[in-house]
Amino acid sequence: MASLHSYLLVSGLLFAIGLAGVVLRRNIIVVFMCLELMLSAANLTLVAFSRFNGSNGLPDYNGQMLVFFVITVAAAEVAVGLAIIVALYRARQTIHTDDLTSMRG
Amino acid sequence: MPLALFWFFAVLMLVGGLAVISLRNPVAAALSMVASFVGLAGLFIGLNAYFVGIIQILVYAGAIMVLFLFIIMLLDLKTEEKRTPKVVPIVGGLGIVLAFTIQLLGVLGNTPDTKSQPLDLAAGAAEYTERSPGIAAKLEAGSLPDVNLVGDVIFTGYNLPLQIVGVLLLVATVGVVVLSSRQTT
């Protein structure tokens, strides 16, 4: 059986990968995917704590509730974000973040 | 979950994540994200969170991924691929990630580890004998009725947040329709 540290390490590494993608990639859709990876890494941490800090021999389901709400908010966020990307592409014909500098000071 | 299975799914998840950030073709990135989420769902199921694992497959690997692929197809992104990456942002980004990883390892080294205990279903059944006999019967029979327990918690303890999330989804739907309708002015 894997211990809590293994799960936390794996989830932290996934978060680091997502963070690297958000910082390094210039394609805004891939940046969005990496945001999803980071949210999922947080979900894995929540589920791991829910399983390892169980009460009465069962997992702590209060931890898993937050996972459901995170998944729902992530789904809504993806829908709105992709609509914004489509609107952006219509206006500028690009989704490369280096080309979108009109708000730079 | 056996240790070998844990590492199999963990490596699948991490390799999928690495492929997302390293592949230049957005379609390939989206498909490797599916692999990453399948590994993550395996980890969830190994943590006895069966419902979360299934939802992860359905919502992320199913719905959200189709949305991503659809947008990639709609925008026709092939021309975006040939760009020369700049060195300074890459070095800075990798520095941030390295600092985060070192911090993570330091925190994990200083916190107590917990070995996983097997679930004690009979002890959990005592809590549900009065409130929900059906759940208690399943627990005493030795199976974990994950969906029943999740439903019990979400509809008794989290009723108001659940309805607020419903309103959030409605707002998101209306917002998407407004955003993606072509402006006529």
Automatic annotation (TrEMBL), chain A:
Known catalytic reactions: a quinone + NADH + 5 H(+)(in) = a quinol + NAD(+) + 4 H(+)(out)
Keywords carried by this UniProt record: Cell membrane, Membrane, NAD, Quinone, Translocase, Transmembrane, Transmembrane helix, Transport, Ubiquinone
Membrane-topology descriptor: Multi-pass membrane protein
Compartments it resides in: Cell membrane; Membrane
InterPro entries: NADH_UbQ_OxRdtase_chain4L/K (IPR001133), NUOK/Mnh_C1-like (IPR039428)
Catalytic activity, EC: 7.1.1.-
Enzyme class: translocase
Keyword Nuclease: no
Domain of life: Bacteria
Signal peptide: none
Transmembrane segment boundaries: 6-24, 29-52, 64-89
Record note on quaternary structure: NDH-1 is composed of 14 different subunits. Subunits NuoA, H, J, K, L, M, N constitute the membrane sector of the complex.
Protein family membership: Belongs to the complex I subunit 4L family.
Summary of the function given for this chain in its UniProt record: NDH-1 shuttles electrons from NADH, via FMN and iron-sulfur (Fe-S) centers, to quinones in the respiratory chain. The immediate electron acceptor for the enzyme in this species is believed to be ubiquinone. Couples the redox reaction to proton translocation (for every two electrons transferred, four hydrogen ions are translocated across the cytoplasmic membrane), and thus conserves the redox energy in a proton gradient.
Name of the molecule in the record: NADH-quinone oxidoreductase subunit K
Species this chain originates from: Haloferula helveola
Origin organism lineage: Bacteria, Pseudomonadati, Verrucomicrobiota, Verrucomicrobiia, Verrucomicrobiales
Gene, per the UniProt record: nuoK1
UniProtKB/TrEMBL annotation, chain B:
The enzyme's E.C. designation: 7.1.1.-
Catalytically driven reaction(s): a quinone + NADH + 5 H(+)(in) = a quinol + NAD(+) + 4 H(+)(out)
InterPro entries: NADH_UbQ/plastoQ_OxRdtase_su6, Nuo/plastoQ_OxRdtase_6_NuoJ
Swiss-Prot/TrEMBL keywords: Cell membrane, Membrane, NAD, Quinone, Transmembrane, Transmembrane helix
Domain of life of the native organism: Bacteria
Subcellular location: Cell membrane
Signal peptide per UniProt: none
Keyword hit for Cell membrane: yes
Keyword hit for Transmembrane: yes
Membrane topology: Multi-pass membrane protein
Membrane-spanning parts: 6-23, 30-51, 57-75, 87-108, 160-179
Role according to the record: NDH-1 shuttles electrons from NADH, via FMN and iron-sulfur (Fe-S) centers, to quinones in the respiratory chain. Couples the redox reaction to proton translocation (for every two electrons transferred, four hydrogen ions are translocated across the cytoplasmic membrane), and thus conserves the redox energy in a proton gradient.
Protein family (similarity comment): Belongs to the complex I subunit 6 family.
Protein name: NADH-quinone oxidoreductase subunit J
